[in-house]
Amino acid sequence: MTALPTLLLVDDEEHSLAAMRMALEDDFDCLTAPGAEDAMRLMEENFVQAIFCDQRMPGKTGVEFLSEVRERWPETVRIIITGYTETNDMIAAINEAGIYQFLTKPWHPDQLVMAAKNAAQLFQLSRDHDRLSLEMRFMGKTAENKLEARRRTLREGFGFERVLRAPNSPMNATVELARQVASFDVPVLITGEAGTGKDVMARAMHYASLRSDQSFYELNCAGLPDEVLMAELLGAKKGALGGAPSNRIGLLQKASRGTLFLNGVDTLSPQMQLILLRIATEGSFEPLGGTETLTTNTRLMAGSHSDLAPALASGRFRKDLFYALSTIELSLPPLRARIDDLDILTRHILGDLAAQHSKPVEGLTNLALEFLGNYDWPGNLPELSNELTRMLILSQEPRLGPELISRHILQADPSVSGRPDPFEAGLLASEGTLKDRIEAMEARILRETLTRMKWNKSRAAEELGLSRVGLRSKLDRYGVQQPGKFDPAEEEED
């Protein structure tokens, strides 16, 4: 569902604010403020498209407030509502505050709604204009400058900077090897579980290579029938594929002089392995349904979701094809082996999600990051992105807390992620009695359950089969406390 445009209504008269909100709330997300100070605070906390502001208010006038808005948020459409029409006020409003429209009191609801819709449309048109203006700068350059700008933009957007990692990340060694071999025109095999970013690494190597001014194509072979795969890769003659009325150009021709990344080569059938072997060793092929031999000058990069050693040993994957594709082999670690990268990964993904969904976010709390680090992430980066999307959608605060995390992740055993759990290790190695060790584990279960329940003790007690008095007694006994401040809206009365 598309988010409604946000309006800020400013008037010191309460009944006027209520009337404006009633007229506009069906079509807009309305924020209200009784004066300039409160309105400025709302502007800092929200993404506002248009402001309807009364001119005569205690403290700052509408023109004075909107003049400040113009300096800080020039895109926001500014509209004055006034019961007075002095010429001097109108001139000041136009010159100082850049007012888009004057509305006089008393206004009609239809008039207000129409003004708001026009303002929201103007805001969007202004943003589109700025974007198009930026794009037009590149169109006016010479061909040489445009090509260089394109190369630089692509390198910055798809280069090794896209492979996000911490200073001590296990990904660093792989990236350094990829940088070293990127400019050598040899085949590269990239291995790693699905979702580890093999396509991102292949693209980064392309834009760091001597072919960076040519096209990059990728094709995931997993799950594609041979006929479809051959048509995509080799092309097809007229009528060869389902009676197609025209010839189809394959990726090998499109990517000639560029780079083609074939992901999922571990799933190829024996027939497709033989075809790919000829392409990798000779650079020649015949389109589907054709007899003419074509050649290609494509740099091949291949991706495998699994270790090919067992397939080589059993004969399921051709050894000669393996050697033809793997002059250089890169292995990408799974996300569970990159837990130290979670901080930078979550910040980057949340930044993209916030822009995509127009929902401001400041990041994750330390406790939320700790719980995410306890999970083994079998789905790797796509699973992390899905979880962060879910948390962002459900969030009511700019900083996302652990109560938003899916239950199966919240309850994950830290040892599964490959990282030793200090608490569990200490518990097993301690010399305390069985009763003491069980109570320590009980305290941990209490903390995890309360975290998931946003510290709602009634709900936690119900799930754990305890009374509220019994739960509070255990919390006091074990010293389990909520991190940070309590939110009275979420915590029931004790």
Give the key terms.
494 residues; alpha/beta; five-stranded parallel beta sheet; 12% strand; flat
Briefly summarize what is shown.
The protein is an alpha/beta fold. The chain has helices at 14-24, 36-45, 62-72, 87-97, 109-139, 143-158, 171-182, 198-207, 226-234, 251-254, 270-282, 309-314, 319-325, 342-357, 366-373, 380-394, 407-410, 422-429, 434-452, 457-464, 468-478, and strands spanning 6-10, 29-33, 50-54, 77-82, 101-104, 188-191, 216-220, 235-236, 248-249, 259-263, 284-285, 294-295, 299-304, 328-331, 363-364, 399-400.
Structural class estimated from helices and strands? alpha/beta
Which stretches are low in confidence, meaning pLDDT under 50 for 5 or more residues running?
416-425, 485-494
Quantity of strands, as a count: 16
Percent helix range: 40-55%
SS element count, helices: 21
Strand order, biggest sheet? 2-1-3-4-5
Distance between the termini: 39 Å
Strand content: 5-15%
Shape: flat
Radius of gyration: 31 Å
- Give the biggest sheet: 5 strands, parallel
Mean pLDDT: 83
Detailed description of the structure:
With 494 residues, the chain is of the alpha/beta class. It has 21 helices and 16 strands. The protein has helices at residues 14-24, 36-45, 62-72, 87-97, 109-139, 143-158, 171-182, 198-207, 226-234, 251-254, 270-282, 309-314, 319-325, 342-357, 366-373, 380-394, 407-410, 422-429, 434-452, 457-464, 468-478, and strands at 6-10, 29-33, 50-54, 77-82, 101-104, 188-191, 216-220, 235-236, 248-249, 259-263, 284-285, 294-295, 299-304, 328-331, 363-364, 399-400. Strands 2-1-3-4-5 form a five-stranded parallel sheet, with helices on both faces. Strands 7-10-13-6-14 form a five-stranded parallel sheet. α7 (171-182) runs parallel beside α8 (198-207), α11 (270-282) crosses α13 (319-325) and α20 packs across α21. It is flat and about 85 Å long.
